[in-house]
Amino acid sequence: MTAMKTVYYTATSVDGFIATADHSLDWLLSRHSDEDGPMGYNQFITAIGAIAMGASTYQWILDNEPGEWSYTVPAWVFTHREFPEFEGRDIRLTAEPADIVHKQMAAAAPGKDLWIVGGGDLAGQFADHGLLDEIIVSIAPVTLGSGAPLLPRHLELKVTEVAPNGEFACVRYEVAR
Ligand SMILES: NC(=O)c1ccc[n+]([C@@H]2O[C@H](COP(=O)([O-])OP(=O)(O)OC[C@H]3O[C@@H](n4cnc5c(N)ncnc54)[C@H](OP(=O)(O)O)[C@@H]3O)[C@@H](O)[C@H]2O)c1
What we know:
- There is one protein chain.
- By secondary structure, the protein is an alpha/beta fold.
- It has a single domain, classed as Dihydrofolate Reductase, subunit A, CATH 3.40.430.
- Helices cover 23% and strands 32% of the residues.
- Strand 9 and strand 10 form a beta hairpin.
- The radius of gyration is 15 Å and the shape is globular.
- The model has no long low-confidence stretch (mean pLDDT 96).
- Bound molecules: NADP nicotinamide-adenine-dinucleotide phosphate (NAP).
- NADP nicotinamide-adenine-dinucleotide phosphate binds next to strand 1, strand 2, strand 3, helix 3 and strand 6.
- Pfam families: RibD_C (PF01872).
- It comes from Nocardia uniformis.
- One of its GO terms (biological process) is riboflavin biosynthetic process.
- GO terms for molecular function: 5-amino-6-(5-phosphoribosylamino)uracil reductase activity.
């Protein structure tokens, strides 16, 4: 059995940034959402069998949540850098193309979904190979003007779910093929 869906699940500003230019998430973490509510994290994470993130996202975790690694599933970190790893956690540093890593992730997560944590270009790299199935965004009521882009690609999407959650507007999209 292979993995089911590959999902980019993230929060964004109204103008399409997932972090400020200096990688701050204060605009996001200061806002209320119900993790058990519509498109909430607690339900989402139960379906996930492997995750992928880029170097800036990993660096953010190292800087802001030192010593904490909340994920229990295998993780791939795309980078050309050397990074400390979390002892006892399955974290694989890689610079291989997204399609190769996708095969590795799928093999590690039979019957489960794959989560592209971010950033946006990394989600785009999976989409470039036709390997991104779904995008779930929690839109915070703020504009940032600049920052790390949500998804710097042209993709055609279909809305499959819309719901408010706390201060956020949550939208689920299917990526059209
Ligand atoms: N709003 C949210 O919910 C949310 C979610 C996730 C992330 N974030 C934040 O958004 C920001 C994202 O930063 P970002 O746009 O710079 O994206 P990123 O994907 O986190 O990091 C980009 C870096 O990853 C490495 N990388 C990407 N693709 C690679 C590949 N194929 N092979 C090897 N290395 C590769 C490169 O770094 P090197 O070559 O230098 O290693 C690249 O500069 C971070 O601040 C993060 O904390 C927010």
